[in-house]
Amino acid sequence: MAIAKAERLMNLALCLLGTRRPLSKRELRESIEAYLEAGSDDSFNRMFERDKDDLRELGLVIETVENLDGEVGYLARRDSNRLPPITIDAEEAAALGLAAKVWQQARLAGAASGALQKLRAAGLPEDADPYGAHSALEPRIPAHEAAFEPLMLACRDRRPVVFDYRKATAARPEQRHVEPWALECWRGHWYLAGWDRDRGAERVFRLSRITGKVRARAGKYTADVPDVVTVRETVASWAGESADRSARIRLRAGAGYPLRAKAASVRELGDGWDELEIPYGHGLDAWLVEFGPDVVVMEPAELRADVVDRLRAVAKG
């Protein structure tokens, strides 16, 4: 069956690429043997529509043209289906390979693999990825959250969404109406940047705190979508990368290596604890909570209070 369908698609593609004028369904049916064997007009129409959609999914540009008599015809112009030579350097190939690994954890796994196959057929070298099998390290970007795929599609299609979101300091989730801009991965976590309609301001949401289903809503965006670079800066700021002061914490010896990498100074206290001075910016409290009992905030007092509030909210469930 797979071979028969592949042959049918190839014949249809050759017919559409080889004609100089639009061909009607009737002419295509008379030209392709598999269509002649269709039992009825309805069976042929369903088969043809599926084949046409499959060819478009594979990248063939098929035009639909209506003549003076109102009859619909189809053709695939060669100039519309001819790609220029593709040149991709090693760094670009690595980025494409890493992006494909993200989609492998979502429903787009098949499309991502197919895209890489097409690029390799067009000249992408198999060994161009510096993170390939010969490397000791392989980067991974997890995308396990159920909200990832619907939000990714909403960002692509510019569709407003509604979801329930539980802040780290809240015991219960609340509904948020958002115009999604972009998804960014930061410190192993996915964040959504967008316009919060309820608050009338841009906000960043951590996907792991979205509960229930993400529901799409009809209508257009009410706020302008910023440049993608601005979105990344927003996510970095909300994730705690924009620090304007310092904090002093105690960290259990042998734990919290990401915190140690950020530390301006580290001092051994004995009894299995160290004292660190680390940059303090928006979102640091949420990050510190992730280390649980291995971290104790000493100062400033406001950071200590924020961390305690978040821990209490987690304890309440």
Would you kindly provide a written description of the structure presented here, covering whatever features stand out?
The chain is an alpha+beta fold and 317 residues long. It has eleven helices and twelve strands. The protein has helices at residues 2-18, 25-31, 33-36, 41-57, 90-103, 109-121, 148-157, 228-238, 257-262, 284-289, 301-316; strands at 23-24, 63-66, 72-75, 161-165, 174-186, 189-196, 201-206, 210-216, 243-252, 265-270, 273-281, 295-299. Strands 7-6-5-4-8 form a five-stranded antiparallel β-sheet. A four-stranded antiparallel β-sheet has the order 10-11-9-12. Helix 1 crosses helix 4 (41-57). The radius of gyration is 27 Å and the shape is elongated. Residues 128-139 have low confidence and may be disordered.
Radius of gyration: 27 Å
Order of helices and strands: HEHHHEEHHHEEEEEHEHEEHEH
Number of helical segments with 4 or more residues: 11
Note the overall shape.
elongated
The chain-level structural class is alpha+beta
Distance between the termini: 53 Å
Strand order of the largest sheet: 7-6-5-4-8
**DSSP helix fraction:** 25-40%
Which segments are poorly predicted (pLDDT under 50) over 5 or more consecutive residues?
128-139
**Percent of sequence in beta strands:** 15-25%
**Biggest sheet statistics:** 5 strands, antiparallel
Number of strands: 12
Average of pLDDT: 80
Please describe the topology of this protein.
Layout: H1 2-18, E1 23-24, H2 25-31, H3 33-36, H4 41-57, E2 63-66, E3 72-75, H5 90-103, H6 109-121, H7 148-157, E4 161-165, E5 174-186, E6 189-196, E7 201-206, E8 210-216, H8 228-238, E9 243-252, H9 257-262, E10 265-270, E11 273-281, H10 284-289, E12 295-299, H11 301-316
Antiparallel strand pairs: 1-3, 2-3, 4-5, 4-8, 5-6, 6-7, 9-11, 9-12, 10-11
